[in-house]
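Holo prediction — uridine-diphosphate-N-acetylglucosamine.
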Amino acid sequence: MTQPVLVTGAAGFIGSHSVEWLLGQGGVRVVGVDNLRTGRLENLAAVRALPDFEWVLADAGDETAMRAVFQKYRPAGVLHLAALVSVPESFREPALNYRLNLAMADSLARLCLEFDCRRLVFASSAAVYGATEVLPNRESATPQPQSPYAAAKLAAEIMLLGYAASYGLEAICLRYFNVYGPRQDPSSPYSGVLSIFTERFRCGLPVTVYGDGEQTRDFIAVRDVARANGEALNRPGVASGRYNVCTGRAVSLNRVLAIYRELFPGSPPSEHAAARIGDIRHSLGDPEALRRMLGFTAETPFARALRELAHWA
Ligand code: UD1
């Protein structure tokens, strides 16, 4: 029997897509852990009944519970996606942010060492770059975290890479840029802009554009992110380090709006509001390091993916 891989945050937006990608490879067993704090069991509807999938309802930060999971399944690798995902929540709840975004990664890394699990792939964020002026963001740039969230993600990267240097753990820290796609929760004003816009256009409601709409983002489809996660977990010979997960292409909000207006003709005009405090004008990643290491390039054409998202039920 092959050793399974463990996915934390399996019922989340990125987690559920990653589990599907892994199972789609065939011959891979996946143990999915989630405490359903922000994840949803419905996200796993397509995989719950598959024989290669094991569902575990647990808090991935509960070391005792997770030791039992490691003991039982002896995972060959861990994809660690469980996290506090909201930047505003990290400001309101810094202690919880510390526990979920830093202490949990440390605890899982130590369990990997204890149970001879060689590789840990960690969900980091482009947020670690903060207010850097030089674009595109390269992994070698000095990070300037601007939130408790970004600080904890950066600290977790440092802990994991320290364990890599000290004990030979393979720690692969993936810095996601703006991820979008089906199952992203649009319910908070701080949800990803594409999830909010999709929902509002579908309901015939006006969207709010903060600022002039000329701000740009490096939007990457969740199916590409799932593939990057899976390859980072499975490929032999991936070096420990930090890697951007991005497309290398900048798309403005006005371009996004133009696509939506074609998809939903007759929608109400956008409302405009002042730019958000602390909003970054342009965010763009350099995808080169991950391309060199994994042969990974984002493949999903943006306009087509938006069209699919618009029709996703
Ligand atoms: C993203 C991350 C955040 C991270 C930051 C680091 C998401 C959801 N957030 O924030 O965790 O700290 O990158 O760079 O991925 N906007 C509108 N109208 C709306 C909603 C948003 O105009 O209704 C604008 C925002 O002001 C912003 C852009 O759309 O200019 C993108 O917003 P958002 O999707 O929240 O992502 P980031 O701000 O890039």
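READOUT: Residues 87, 126-127, 178, 190-193, 196, 208-210, 215, 217, 253, 276, 279-280, 283 surround uridine-diphosphate-N-acetylglucosamine (CB under 6 Å).
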